[in-house]
Amino acid sequence: MNTLSKALLRSLACLAVGAAGVSQAETRSISNPLPESAVVQFVVASGRTVHEGEALVVLDATPWLEKRRAAEVALQTALAEAQANEEKIAPLEAANAAALATAADEVNQAERMLKRFVEGDARANELTLILSAIDAKADFDRQQERYTSRDKLLASGCIAKIQYNAEEVELTKTKYAMEIAQLKLDSFEKYEKPQLIDQFTNQVAQKKKAQANLQTQCVKNVKAAQAALQASKEKVKSLTEQRDRYSQWLEKTAIYAPSEGRFYPGNPEQPEVKIEPGALVGAAHVLGLLKKP
Fold first, then answer.
1. pLDDT tens digits along 225-277
2. Is the same domain home to 109 and 160?
3. Which of 17, 95, 130, 270 is the S-S candidate for 258 at Cβ 3.0 to 4.6 Å?
């Protein structure tokens, strides 16, 4: 405390006067403007006549210098944090946009695959099976007609029994071929085609669900980043106000006479409270009285 020169203290000082329930026309109370500080010295002796602007009391600036330095360090840290949080927003939004674009492409691809199957592959497969069934039915009809015509030839003795039996075997084969072709067509239409459509439809639904979940997560991430940025900005504001408040207090480490008068250190209403150099006094504590001459 004693190492601080009066020149430093006075360079940080300004007028700070409190009037506490006493008539300004006759007596003014000189109060401590700081939350708490120690008295360095009373510049003038008790009862001496002082002029307006003359220093009366010097207060210790050390605690507030330390507090302001600590606030400045915390403020610089908060500013760096706020800048870092702000710099995260743009890359995060860009990453979200790229991820959402990829998800949209996957949905479109799944929808194209479904459409291609329904309007392309499924129709082509179905048409092939229909044509196969038609051909098999035509083969059976021709063979049945041929087999029926062999009845008359066999009865008239124009063909042998073995030839007749060969036509019967061929008729059975074409019948089986027709039935198999029809079964394949029925199976495709009743089972394979619906199952494949369901499979492609489910893929589309899954991609859309993933897209919606990603959209929700992206919104949450951006909101969280914005909330962190807002919190850091509020922290910067609070620390700035704290630093400035300490700076203002540092300007009040010397108290000057608001007008001409006689200065009397201490408070007559509390004579038991001794205010001497080194005494710790609280905010608005009366340090002395200034009476008009």
1. 999 999 999 999 999 999 998 888 777 778 888 888 888 887 777 776 677 77
2. yes
3. 17
Rounded CA-CA distance 34/287 in Å is 12
Name the one residue in this structure whose structure tokens are 């089986």.
176
Range of the domain at 259: 6-61+253-291
Alpha-helical segments (H) within the chain: 6-11, 62-116, 122-156, 161-187, 193-250
Angle at which helices 161-187 and 122-156 cross, to 10°: 160
Model confidence over 163-215: pLDDT tens digits?
878 888 888 999 999 999 999 989 988 989 899 889 989 999 999 999 999 99
Q: Are residues 84 and 114 in the same domain?
A: yes
Q: Collect all residues with Cβ–Cβ distance below 8 Å to 158 and sequence separation of at least 6.
A: none
Question: What's the DSSP call for residue 18?
Answer: -
Q: Are residues 83 and 217 in the same domain?
A: yes
Q: Where does residue 171 rank: exposed (0-12), middle (13-18), buried (19+ CB within 10 A)?
A: buried
Q: Is residue 237 part of a domain?
A: yes
| 3 state SS of 274 | coil
Residue 258 and residue 240 share a domain: no
Pair of tokens at residue 131: 């044509």
Instruction: Give me the number of domains the chain comprises.
Output: 2
CATH number of domain containing 201? 1.10.287
Of 145, 146, 3, nearest in space to 62 by CA: 3
Q: Which of 3-12, 156-165, 252-261, 282-291 has the highest mean pLDDT?
A: 252-261
